[in-house]
Specification:
Length: 216
């Protein structure tokens, strides 16, 4: 399949992790996480430069806008659910977003992610991102995924390492973060890098480092 148009909604699961479309009813949980984890998120959250002209959106408006873009094949706005133990009710704990999807001669997209700090360190985001990457490569037919990470964001850099993304170096003043244009390190993963799949690669990495896949 060489086009993602019309392929939304999508829900993908592996073990205790599920990625699925963001929903308007996620708003209260989203607000609670972002408020409780303000000091965790604030060094890395993107901000609007003073010259930005786009109007801000409410959470429901953003969910509906992203869903419309997803139906057009432009992005994949996934919420992340985690089941802490068998039989437990899954909890909303983060997001994995695939954006800027391009086909034709490019066949690439960008990825971004965040996790509720109280669930960090369990391998949830690496596994969720691996699920999204496998969908991009093997269902949508994309060739390349990119991620831009602040050079001092050690936890996010660890996700790139566990999934085998290639470090392509610094891009100066790449994104507006915390009120200023900030340098980022750009990472990439190509479809031919992972013929076995990104989920399989992640689980192999964890076994090689003596950890279960849900403890990374």
């Amino acid at each position: 399949m060489l086009s993602g148009r019309g392929a939304w909604p999508v829900t993908l699961s592996h073990g205790p992790v599920t990625i699925r479309p963001m929903r308007v009813r996620d708003e209260q949980a989203w607000i609670e996480i972002r408020q409780r984890g303000f000091t965790w998120f604030s060094p890395w959250d993107s901000t609007r430069p003073p010259e930005a002209r786009e109007l801000g959106m409410t959470f429901p408006q953003q969910v509906r806008d992203f869903a419309a873009r997803a139906r057009r094949g432009e992005m994949l706005p996934f919420g992340v659910d985690y089941q802490p133990e068998p039989g437990a009710r899954p909890v909303f704990c983060g997001q994995v977003t695939v954006s800027g999807i391009a086909y034709g001669a490019m066949c690439w997209a960008q990825v971004g992610y965040w996790i509720d700090p109280r669930w960090a360190g369990r391998g949830i985001i690496p596994l969720g991102l691996a699920l999204a990457a496998d969908h991009c490569f093997f269902t949508l037919g994309l060739h390349r995924l990119e991620a831009a990470i602040r050079p001092d964001n050690d936890k996010s850099l660890a996700v790139m390492r566990k999934l085998g993304f290639h470090d392509e170096g610094i891009r100066e003043r790449y994104m507006h973060v915390r009120g200023a244009w900030r340098d980022h390190r750009v990472f990439s993963l190509l479809a031919e890098d992972v013929p076995e799949g990104v989920v399989v690669r992640f689980e192999r990495y964890m076994r090689q480092h003596g950890q279960p896949p849900d403890a990374g």
